Amino acid sequence: MQLVKRRIPNRRLGGFTLLEIVFVLSMVAILVTWMTVSITTVESEQKLREAAGRIELLAKRGLNIAVIQQRPYELTIKEKTVSLKPKYATISDDFESIEVSGLGDDENNRSFDDITASEAMTADVSYEIKRWRSDEWQTLEKNQQMVISLSPLGLIEPISIRCSIGKSWIIHELHPLTAGIRDEEMSIEKE
After folding, report:
1. Can you give the residue ranges of every domain in the chain?
2. What is the Cα–Cα distance from 102 to 115, expressed in whole angstroms?
3. CATH level 3 topology of 21-187
4. What is the per-residue pLDDT across 87-143, written as a single tens digit (0 to 9) for each?
């Protein structure tokens, strides 16, 4: 009997080739980059919606109070706060000047309980307002404020508010009767 030698092929020992390792590492890097970009865009969108929502919430609240009390209120947007307060107007005898004061001590103007509210604004968000029949955005800069009148009949004028962080922005157009959002536009850019 003859013995037949079988040749056993070389079997690879357990392990990966360099090409497989490079491929897996590149896939992991792509996934980590994608997740990081996704998280930052979600955070930007959340901050923008929250900032615009604060303004809309106080505008609705002020309009409701103005309707109930049948007197105008003001929504004031500053660099770090958005606030709501009653608007007192007294007309002088010559009817040529109107004096507007904040929370005055005049007892005639204080027949209602003054309702005020204030909320802090998001620090890294910039704010702009476009008034009715205007194509220009008014940017809120340091030591400036924007005042929006809230009449018992509705907003004095339809306005649009743009909140932005870097290249990302959201625009809310407020409805003149309800102060709710009539239209919304948004663009979230990868930073």
Report:
1. 21-187
2. 12
3. minor pseudopilin epsh fold (3.55.40)
4. 874 434 443 433 444 444 444 444 567 788 888 887 788 888 898 888 899 888 878
Cα separation, 23 vs 145, in Å, equals 55
**If DSSP codes are grouped into helix, strand and coil, which group holds residue 129?**
strand
How far is residue 53's CA from residue 175's CA, in Å, rounded to a whole number? 14
In the beta sheet, which residues pair with residue 149?
74
Report the C-alpha gap between 45 and 164 in whole angstroms.
Answer: 10
pTM above 0.70, yes or no: no
3-state secondary structure of 65: helix
Distance of CA 104 to the CA centre of its chain: 32
Contacts of residue 98, defined as CB under 8 A and 6 or more positions apart, other chains included, come to 89, 90, 91, 92
